[in-house]
Amino acid sequence: MQDGLQSLISGWLEEKVDAFGFAPVDRFADSPEEHHPGKICRDATTVIVYGVTVPRAVLTSPGYHLHLLQRSYHTSYAYLDQVGMDLSRLLEGQGHPAVVVPAYAPLIFHDLEPWGLLSLKHAAVQAGLGSFGRSGMVYHPMFGSLLRLGAVVTAAALSGSPVKMEEPCPPGCNACRERCPSGAYAGDTFHKMACLGYSIKHGIYRHVLTDDYGRKNLEMVINTTGYNYWLSCTECQRVCPLNAVGSRTPV
User: Fold this and answer.
1) Which of 63, 78, 126, 229 pairs as cysteine with 27 (C-beta 3.0–4.6 A)?
2) For the whole model, what pTM was predicted?
3) Contacts with 224 (C-beta within 8 Å, 6 or more apart), sequence order
């Protein structure tokens, strides 16, 4: 393992993000083949995952929490993509191939279901940034579910961060499930498309995706004109006690 390189990367990331970790590619053995790190970077060996947090006070804004969270998300996506570009250049300057995994788009569609190039939630768990809660979201010990994530896949061999195995949700808490207006938590399974259909909106979708051209070119439409989506629901985030101001202790 290249301890000097890992120290260089860690010091660099500490100045730019709120959390980061390292996941050896062998931790992704159960990933779908089309979304495995090896499909992103030739000779992929390590996935470096990092995140920045959305200000908690956005969720309690008296009149504009949806407006402010929408802008916070998209500002974070652009910033994380730039961090990834700069980190990739740093790695390649040291002789290690590296590819950015975008924080949001482009998306890959399986039928009508959007997937990231790599599941950043699963990557975050494998890199020790947090663990899955009952909502299906990843919870960091300090930042709850408010981290926006990005990653770089590299051929550099780096030591893996410890994986967090503990259950993040308070005992007996089902606040997200009880408050969800979309039906996404019906039964024991999180229904991603029910959540997305209710909470993610864009002014152009109904106009472009109702004709043959739009349907045949779904990925192109969503990843270009449909990129900057609108939020119409954040109830699971707002009611979660792990996202409350002062709810967590730094680790």
Assistant:
1) 126
2) 0.93
3) none
